[in-house]
Amino acid sequence: MGTFQACGIGAMTLEGNGEVEGGYITLPPPETFAPTDVDTDQWVQAIKAYGSKHAVLVVSHGCGFNTFPSNTAFPEFGFVYNYTIRASPWKNGTGDIARDFVNSCRKYGIEPGFYHGAMNNAFLNVVGGQVQPNTIPGQATITQDQYYQILLANLRQLWTDYGPLAEVWFDGGYPAAKSDEIAALLQELQPTAVAFGGPGANVVRWCGTESGQLSYPYWSTAKSVGDCTQGEPDGPVFVPAEADTCFQTAPGVDSDPRAPYGGCWFYNPSMVPKSLSQLVTSYHETVGINANLLLDWTPNQTGIVPPEHVQRYQEFGDWIRGCYGAPPVASVEQAGSSFTLNLPAGSEFDRVVIMEDQTNGQLIRGYTVAIDGQIAVQETAIGHKRIALLKGYIKNAKTVTFNVTSAATGTPKIASFALFNCSREPTVSGCAFTSDFAYNAPASIIIANITGATSSSCCDACRSNNKCAVFTLTPAKQCVLLSANQGGSDSPGSLSGSPQG
User: Fold this and answer.
1) Given the DSSP bridges, would you call strands 241-245 and 203-206 parallel, antiparallel or unpaired?
2) Is the pTM of this model over 0.85?
3) Long-range contacts of 74-78 (CB under 8 A, 24+ apart)
4) How far does Cα 435 stand from its chain's mean position?
5) Which DSSP symbol is given to 93?
6) Which of 168-172, 183-187, 455-459 ranks highest by mean pLDDT?
7) Could you count the other beta carbons within 10 Å of the beta carbon of residue 422?
8) Contacts 24+ apart (CB under 8 A), 67-70
């Protein structure tokens, strides 16, 4: 999972694409970029709370205002890119949002990425990658070839000055005439970055919707990098999909029609965070069907993520960790195309999580999961991850059998297969969870050891004991209640937590 944020310029918000008047995007003066409390550490801590592994910052959106101090200048045709943060009053023109963001990401273990629009730039009078014939006040006057030079110079600076990037975003694509040059520049400066909708070797495709709800099956292969559909099992290009979706939604009423993109992509005080249930549904209908979820975050006009947004990110992350970070009911790793798990007595589960080894591509075309000999799941695609929710809770089953029923040329392999038992009605857990971590547990602070525990029962046990400060659920499903937090360490498969509220 990743996350996505737009930080630009606008009269009413920290983010924006300019105000729309008469069908044209205006150019707010740089002086309107004047946030008072920018805290990129707070941004990154908020998105880390929900489990994001990487984050993409929009450094130049449709209006063309750069939230990094662009050095792009071409004296030979009298151009200086002066529509940037350097011309704003923030930090007296010495600030650099991109730098602060990257530093915060690396501080908290998040991989950074950048979105720099390549097809639309109101400052440069570019629409759809083409310089337009008529200008409005404030726009630069340039030729098409000069635009290409400016774009490549901005990209070179971004891809050089801020260290390794996990992802670079080409929203709406890039000028076809410069495909080879952009690909070569990316290979030169950021060879390990994936390019959303971009050229080059490491490309991910757009899923085709911003709803956060995709339709199964979803394939890692497609007709082309521009194929924004579910893909095809025998598509000639291996190009996994990414699903970007808003964090905000309207509270039962229409959002402000003048807000950028209907309001959801940029902070809008008339909108609210999506419910926990909506976010969990998006997780299952993106991550759970072989796509990468890119959930946005929206600082307000002062430069901070609102407290109610921070709370919802934490609740979402705690639900994911409480469900999928807990020890599985049963599991196997690095398996072949057919195997059977013998279940512990009294097992209860309601979902199957399968990850295919895609080292040689997405090979599986069909599979079944049988419970005590009866087929419970019969589907096609797996890919990076498939979360198959069963029709109900399964109790006291003895065996679960997995079989690949159809595959492309090659030997399909399963990276992992696991059974979990989670709530079908997502609710706030009441505990903050940390995956793959165990608290130190000297005998003097152990309150209780509970066998056969789940994440929810361990949380409930701690919450009901007024002496309990923190707890650890071990891979053996042993819940250890502790009266004090004396630190801890990484522990693969363990889930630790503390009561909240």
Assistant:
1) parallel
2) yes
3) 74/146, 74/149, 74/150, 74/153, 77/142, 77/143, 77/146
4) 18
5) G
6) 183-187
7) 19
8) 67/7, 67/8, 67/33, 67/96, 67/97, 67/98, 68/96, 68/97, 68/98, 68/99, 68/157, 68/158, 69/95, 69/96, 70/154, 70/157
